[in-house]
Every structure is written in structure tokens, then in C-alpha cells.
TrEMBL record:
Enzyme class: oxidoreductase
GO CC terms, sorted: membrane
MF terms in GO: D-arabinono-1,4-lactone oxidase activity; FAD binding
Source organism per UniProt: Penicillium cinerascens
Record has Oxidoreductase as a keyword: yes
UniProt-recorded name of the protein: D-arabinono-1,4-lactone oxidase
EC number(s) recorded for this UniProt protein: 1.1.3.37
Highest taxon listed in the record's lineage: Eukaryota
Amino acid sequence: MARMHRVISWDAEDMSITVEPSIQMNHLMDTMHELGMSMPFHYIPIYTALTIGGMLLTGAHSSSVERPSAFGHLVSELEYVDSHGEVRREENPTRWIGSLGMYGIITQVTLRATAPYKLNTTAAVGGKMGLMLDQVNFTPIPTDWTICYFEKHLPPFWYKEGSTNLWLGFNESVIGWPHKLGGSSCEGSQVGCYWQNQVQILIEFDMDVRLLGQWIREVRSITDSIRYHGCLPSLLGFAMRFGKASSAPLDMAYGRDTVYIDMLVAKGIPGLPANHQDVLDEIEQITFGKYDARPHWGKNPERAFLSQDYPVRNKYPEFDRHIQMARSADPRGIFEPALFSQIKDRGHHSMYPGCAVAMDCYCSKDEHCGPSLLYRCDRSLHSANASVCRKRFDLAIVTTLGKLLRV
Ligand SMILES: Cc1cc2nc3c(=O)[nH]c(=O)nc-3n(C[C@H](O)[C@H](O)[C@H](O)COP(=O)(O)OP(=O)(O)OC[C@H]3O[C@@H](n4cnc5c(N)ncnc54)[C@H](O)[C@@H]3O)c2cc1C
């Protein structure tokens, strides 16, 4: 599969391009630029070393407040091999969004491109200007809820090549081609990049955008309640992106205008919960439970899909029907993803010593927070159903006591 990364054909008049599924987004965008076309910026993910097939099948998205922003909405045609070994053309490509490949092996994808354009990107801290724009990523930093934002939009109509961009008064804007500015990968980096070095895990919550205000207030009260002065070292922020309601049955934005929230957790000490893991786990469970958020098919640990308290199956009204449809075309279930089989069979996430540290489970016994005896499994302070690994002692108090005893 990895070698299926060729460009098959293109039509610069019709603005479409047909590729094999393992081509990476960054390589595809470079080629499109050479061919005189561009990727619409609403569908370019932040990280561009992802494959076209992987993005389609996990429901990967970028951001838009005007249209559904899952990448799969750009797919106009699709060719695949079914469970009988026959090559087929798909009539309804959007049913593949978030399907994890349950209908077959994709061999070709045709995408709608757009005419070449320049992109205006701005990164800034504070302010509310970004709220007016279609494509914006917000990252509120939970220490004081300062908002960092990163936005992409078309340059103003009076923009001339080489002129200073003074649009809306921003002076931190950069204007350039979308294949250069739309996203980035770690390729060519000598020191590795943010994703590899700093971020331990990406946890994504996809919820009804109308609940965002209430959610921020609740999460604020949780982060405030730990009375941590300075920053929360393990929580790098919440990156927020948007998408209009989608009719694709397994799209994370199915049926509701959605805010996609990434909880960015910093790398911690291997084998130990992250610093303030209890706070992070509270936020995660409350968001999946009370706010009925959906996890990202390609990001979250399994526990987000297999919890008995808020089964993901109940979050997709069409889930059962589509699993049945796939099964009738593939009676032996050759392509049924293991995760879908577990969801269908109402499986539970695995429980073993240390499983909560590995983020495979939400704890129910102390041993799930092991092997360190520093942690115990505790009831959530904010939700009846949630339980979290909490430190038995506050390390700051232990250190202070140690110092006092030495004096
Ligand atoms: C650093 C980083 C940044 C990310 N940023 C974003 C982001 O901005 N937005 C976002 O939505 N997501 C993002 N993601 C999540 C990403 O969308 C998923 O991790 C996705 O799985 C990545 O695609 P991949 O190319 O690695 O696909 P893979 O993980 O290789 O594949 C995904 C699934 O598709 C199946 N599959 C792949 N190709 C085919 C095929 N041809 N036929 C049948 N089945 C196939 C695989 O078996 C697998 O089940 C990010 C992930 C990382 C690691």
C-alpha cells in the first residue's frame, strides 16, 4: 500500500486530480502547484505528512465555519477493490468518510481542486478578529485563557505581489502559496518537530458548536479548581477548529455544526501519568459524556470508543445500518476494522494494571494507575460517572516537608 503514491491523471480545465491513496498531502500539494492547481485551504490539515487515503478514512478535517471540513468532502470519485476481489467505482464517496476502510481497499481517489491562489496566514495572541473569518484555529491556553489563533484566508482584493499586507491591521501576516503555508510536516527537520518532541498525545473531542460556551466555562472551573498558579505543565492548550454539519454517516460532524477540540498534552515521564492527568481525564470523560462529544476515528486512544458509559455507537445514528451494509457486501467481514467489530459487539476497553497510565482505560481500581504507588483511582469531582488517577500526595507538600525535616 505504501508504494501506491502516484499521481494517475489530472484535468487542469476541470480542476480535478486522480491519485493513489498513499500519496501524502504535502507531496500532492507540491505536484498540484506544478500542474497549475491548488488544494482548497479549508481541507489542508495542520500536519501534512498524512496520506490522502488515511485522511479520508479517519474523517480527518481542517476547519471552516461555512462548510463541512472533513477532507473526504473533496473526493468526487473513488475506485476500490471489494471483498470478492472486484474493482469497483463508488457512487457515494462521502460514505467512506470515517469508515476506516470497511468497504474495501481504495486504489484511486479523484479530488476537486481549485485554481491557484495565494493564502494569507496570521498567527497572533489575543484579540477577536479571527472570529470573523471562515478558517481559523484557536488555541486557548488554560493558564489564563489567553487565545492564540492561527487563521487562513484569501488575501484582500487589493493585495499586490510583494506589497505589505495590512489587512485588518495585522502585521504578523504572511502571504504565500497554500502548499507552502497551508500546513507543515516534520520532513527535513534536523531536530524533529513539535508533534514528535513535545506532544505526548492528541485527544480530540468533536461536539455541537452550540455547547462550546458552556464547555469552556465548565473546563475553566475544573482547571481553576486545582488552584495551580502559573501554567498547567502537561496541558499545552486546546486547539479548536470548526466544520458545518455533514450528512456523511460516520463523519465526526454528522448532523451537527461541530467544533473540533484537540487537547494537547505534553510528553511526561514514561510509565507515569502526565502531570495533572486527573484534570485531563476529568475533562475527557465529561466531554465525551455530558457534552456527547465524538472522538476522532484516527486520533483518540481506544478507551474513548469503548467506554460503556457513553458508547460511541450511540453517537452515530447510522452506525448500525452502515455496518450491516458493509457486512452484506463483505459477509466474512474481511475489511471490518477491529475497532468497529468491538464497537458493534459492545466491547469494553481493556483493563490491566497500568491501563489508565497507557490511556487504554479509565481506571476503576488503584492498580490501573500503577505501577507507581503514588497514584490511586479516585471518583471525579465533577461527574458522577468519571474516575481518574489522582496523586496520593501532593509532591510540592512532600518536597516542602522533606526540606523542613532536613533543617
Ligand atoms: C502529527 C499528526 C497531526 C495530525 N493532524 C490532523 C489534523 O490536522 N486533522 C485531522 O483531522 N487529523 C489529524 N491527524 C490524525 C490523522 O488524520 C490520522 O492519524 C490518520 O490516520 C492519519 O493518516 P495516515 O496517513 O497516517 O493513515 P493511516 O493511519 O495509515 O490509515 C488510517 C486508516 O485507513 C486505512 N487505510 C489507509 N489507506 C487505505 C486504503 N487505501 N484502503 C483501505 N484502507 C486504508 C488504514 O488501514 C487505517 O485504518 C493527525 C495525526 C498526526 C500523527
